[in-house]
Write a structure and sequence with these properties.
The structure holds two protein chains of two kinds. By secondary structure, chain A is of the alpha/beta class. Chain A has helices spanning 16-26, 44-50, 65-78, 98-106, 128-145, 161-170, 177-187, 211-230, 232-243; strands at residues 3-9, 32-37, 54-57, 83-88, 112-116, 157-160, 192-196. Chain A has one domain: Alpha-Beta Complex (Spore Coat Polysaccharide Biosynthesis Protein SpsA, Chain A). The chains are: A alpha/beta, B mainly alpha.
Chain lengths: 244, 123
Amino acid sequence: MRIVTVISNYNEQGAIEATIRDFRENATIVSDLIVIDNCSTDASLELVKKAGVNYLRHPVNTGGSAGVIKTALLYADMFGYDVYCHMDGDNQHNAAELAKLVQPIAAGEADIVIGSRFIKREGFQSLPVRRVGIFIFSRLVSALTGQKITDLTSGFRAYNKRAIHFFARKFKHEFEACVQMLMVAAYAGLRIREVPVIMNPRLTGRSEFNLVNSIKFPIFGLVSIAGTMLQRNTIKALSHADQC
Amino acid sequence: MPTNAKIMAAGCAVAFFLTFLFLIRRRSLKPFYAALWLGISLVMMSLIVFEKFYKHIADLLQIRDASFLVFIGSNVFLLIYVLHLSVKLSEISDRVQELISHVAILDRRLELSLEPKRHPDEN
């Protein structure tokens, strides 16, 4: 089984080396490693090059992690990988837990696996306000898709070949990516599974979730849910065409 | 329509038409938008030339003042046009993302192919 682990990087010069080191020292899976840089303006890409890791660089910044995920999916699809694991470059995700993400896919039990910090409630749990938002939206998406999701915004995920191909070729990022991707996956008949993980607080830098984003998230999240519900039949048809 | 208003409307229509011609000359407009704005500038001119015709339509729609007809018409047109631009912008943004992803991958492949290949005996 060919696995690629993608580390997303945007101005993570304080954490990217530690994230790469963590992968090299603690990952128990056999996986290629690639860093996707979202046009960083700091020295983080130089650190990646210095570490000798394969990398891709966006020629312009895509504004959020969704663009990096799209590139990663396309890369994994183009080069025929069976599994794509995603880690953030801020060292919040532990490489030792990548095996937990890959295991349900290897066993054929899931198409997408999410590392959730809210199953065992250990380690870094995010800010209380954000936790409330994640809880409400996770419950809402779980109810609408019939698949249990507790950590909707977790970027620590693994996708199997079917999910990679579907999202690389058919998925258009139209709404709030983390919400939309899981709803689209559920409507496309992809099986989503969560596994408990422990996350770390950010080493350095700023989170994507600032004041503006904390106002934007619930609004865009609701639009995303409503929009994806309207697209339900189209998504099912796309998924069916993909399987034929 | 009072003469002053007619002169002002005619001036606006002519200025709009000249701007349109200038943009066509500079090839700044795609054919679809060129045709659209040509139509708009002709409609603007027709408001002065065929004033009675528009009054007649306003009467048919039971709109007392013909200027309201122009006001409502232009508002509806602008709303539809903004919606059209939003759709186009969304499509373009998808295509840009697709291109960014492909460029990133191709760029790296090119970079790797241009790197001097190491001799197997080299450390």
